[in-house]
């Protein structure tokens, strides 16, 4: 039953504007619908008692009148029930997948069907059926999802990983499972670990479909993100100096950070880790790091795996699929800059806090803050968690594009307190 509890879909629940005010209005409406029906029912059932004699005189006429009334009331009740169900859905702000509509791929229906456990309720988990999970936001992209779920069962999957990623980026996470074989990519010439960490990866063993660039030359010229400027070039450039040689005072060295840790750093999680170099440097120090990445504009996941490292293909909107208090270290850089309302960053920060053990380190690596205000908001948020500041550096770099202003970078190593 262990597999059943891995229902990671509910982490993405996004609630609609169910404000206190609108819920009150909805409740008032529900109440008025119910009371109208009760009055109608009362008026109808009570009146015949006073006129029983007349009913017998004009039975035929009156009966047809009555049945007309009854069907009217039944229709009314039926429509009220539908209204109630709709209101309930709106109150929850959660639309379930409507798989009854036309043009829904049959494979999707089969995948989403609930399966009763053959022996009834499972005594250990208490569940009676297995429910396949799919991100509820998939509903918004039903056409794309149906396209994704259209394939020949047991045949080759379409070469459509980028369609899957498009769905994930629209909140359709987790994706449904499929019953087809992923496009094969021959992984020839993989080097043994730890040589694999720095051995240039062959272009031939990566998937380039659905990407703008078709080779490393193109990728290395592009600024893919703040963490990845030429990050696929392991031989030249800055990539092989990251974390071992500092370029500015907001770049901390891995050995300095590890020296701060108490109780040993053995496993870590890197958020938005580019081509996996942080994990590679940690692997050299016998620390196992999982690198969280999607394939935005580059084949990050396959590249990291080819280096003998662990890529986790998951968007940052998704609750981390790890249990509480398990990591010794979480490393994050500009991937943390989620934008939007401060609450969005809070949800992410609380999730990072959740997976980090007491005494574990949160390494905030050159987080770019657009302005002082952003930096203050972030600082206040971090301080609320009560972490011990082992290192705290605010750096400034002149913004060449925007003369007069300068970019603010925040780097910190923070230790999670033992809360009681
Ligand atoms: C990593 O582990 C190996 C095997 O146990 C050991 O030989 C090596 O010295 C360790 N390296 C570091 C940096 O601790
Ligand atoms: C209960 C009821 O509606 N009774 C009516 C039956 O029909 C006669 C004649 O049309 C009426 O007088 C009654 O009021």
| Assembly state | single chain
Here the CATH topology of the largest domain equals: Rossmann fold
Gyration radius from CA atoms, angstroms: 29 Å
Q: At the first level of CATH, what is the class of the largest domain? A: Alpha Beta
Q: Which outline best applies?
A: globular
Bound compounds, please?
Answer: 2-acetamido-2-deoxy-beta-D-glucopyranose
User: What structural class should be given to the helix and strand makeup?
Assistant: alpha/beta
What count of helical segments does DSSP give? 12
Average residue-wise pLDDT:
83
Kindly state the number of beta strands. Answer: 9
Summarize this structure briefly:
The chain is 35% helix and 14% strand. It has helices at 20-50, 52-57, 59-92, 106-112, 142-148, 161-169, 216-221, 254-260, 277-283, 300-306, 342-355, 372-384, and strands at residues 115-116, 129-130, 267-271, 288-292, 310-312, 327-332, 356-369, 388-398, 406-415. Bound molecules: 2-acetamido-2-deoxy-beta-D-glucopyranose (2 copies).
Describe the structure.
It is a single-pass membrane protein; Single-pass type II membrane protein. This protein is an alpha/beta fold and about 425 residues long. Helix content is about 35%, strand content about 15%. The strands form 2 sheets. Strands 5-4-3-6-7-9-8 form a 7-stranded mixed beta sheet. The protein has a two-stranded antiparallel sheet with strand order 1-2. Helix 1 packs antiparallel against helix 3 (about 60-90). Residues about 1-20 have low confidence and may be disordered.
């Amino acid at each position: 039953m262990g597999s059943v509890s891995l229902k990671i879909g509910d982490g993405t629940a996004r609630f609609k504007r169910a404000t206190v005010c609108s819920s009150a209005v909805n409740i008032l409406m529900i109440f008025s619908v119910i009371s109208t029906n009760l009055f109608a029912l009362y008026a109808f059932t009570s009146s015949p008692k006073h006129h029983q004699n007349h009913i017998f005189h004009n039975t035929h006429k009156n009966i047809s009148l009555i049945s007309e009334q009854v069907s009217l009331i039944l229709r009314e009740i039926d429509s009220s029930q539908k209204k109630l169900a709709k209101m309930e859905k709106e109150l929850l702000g959660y639309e379930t997948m409507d798989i009854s509509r036309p043009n829904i791929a049959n494979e999707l229906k089969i995948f989403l069907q609930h399966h009763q456990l053959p022996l009834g309720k499972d005594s250990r988990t208490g569940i009676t059926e297995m429910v396949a999970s799919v991100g509820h936001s998939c509903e918004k992209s039903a056409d794309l999802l149906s396209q994704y779920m259209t394939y020949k069962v047991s045949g080759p999957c379409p070469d459509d990983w980028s369609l899957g990623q498009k769905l994930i980026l629209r909140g359709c996470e987790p994706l449904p499972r499929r019953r087809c074989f992923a496009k094969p990519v021959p992984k020839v010439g993989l080097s043994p670990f730890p040589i694999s960490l720095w051995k240039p990866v062959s272009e031939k063993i990566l998937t380039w479909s659905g990407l703008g660039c078709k080779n490393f030359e193109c990728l290395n010229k592009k600024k893919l993100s703040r963490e990845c400027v030429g990050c696929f070039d392991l031989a030249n450039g800055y990539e092989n100096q990251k974390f071992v040689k500092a370029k500015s005072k907001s770049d901390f060295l891995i050995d300095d950070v590890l020296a701060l840790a108490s109780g040993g750093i053995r496993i870590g999680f890197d958020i938005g880790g580019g081509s996996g170099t942080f994990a590679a440097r940690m692997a050299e120090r016998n620390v196992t790091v999982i690198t969280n990445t999607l394939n935005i504009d580059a084949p990050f996941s396959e590249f990291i795996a080819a280096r003998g490292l662990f890529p986790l293909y998951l968007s940052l909107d998704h609750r981390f699929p790890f249990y509480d208090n398990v990591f010794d270290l979480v490393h994050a850089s500009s991937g943390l800059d989620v934008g939007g309302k401060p609450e969005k960053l809070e949800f992410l920060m609380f999730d990072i806090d959740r997976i980090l053990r007491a005494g574990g380190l949160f390494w905030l690596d050159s987080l770019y803050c657009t302005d002082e205000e952003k930096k203050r908001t972030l600082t206040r948020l971090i301080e609320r968690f009560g972490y011990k500041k082992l290192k705290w550096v605010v750096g400034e770099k002149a913004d060449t594009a925007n003369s007069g202003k300068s970019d603010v970078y925040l780097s910190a190593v923070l230790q999670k307190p033992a809360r009681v």
